[in-house]
Design a protein that fits this description.
By secondary structure, the chain is mainly beta. It has 1 helix and 6 strands. β1 and β2 form a beta hairpin.
Length: 87
């Protein structure tokens, strides 16, 4: 079964990418990742569609599946969001 995050929450990831915000992700497994938001897109893998968030981390590109993210925090003040907690 394919899982997706809520559309309203997806919009914040798109905003982060449009403005290339530096964000800190806290994953559901407790791991933290800090990087510059690059892109959010859907890929097909093993017949399922997955929502992927791409970050630039120390000169490398890192892809994170959106459903594995617990929280996204903007590291600079902005008019759009501070912290988004995914349900």
């Amino acid at each position: 079964m394919t899982q997706y995050i809520a559309c309203a929450q997806y919009d914040y990831f798109e905003i982060a990418c449009m403005h290339h915000y530096e964000v800190k992700l806290t994953l559901k497994n407790g791991e933290s990742i800090t990087g510059i938001a690059q892109n959010v897109h859907i890929v097909k893998s093993e017949g399922a569609r997955k929502e992927i968030f791409t970050l630039a981390v120390k000169g490398e590109t890192l892809e994170v599946e959106l459903i594995s993210i617990h929280k996204m925090q903007a590291l600079r003040s902005n008019p759009h969001f501070e912290v988004i907690t995914l349900s």
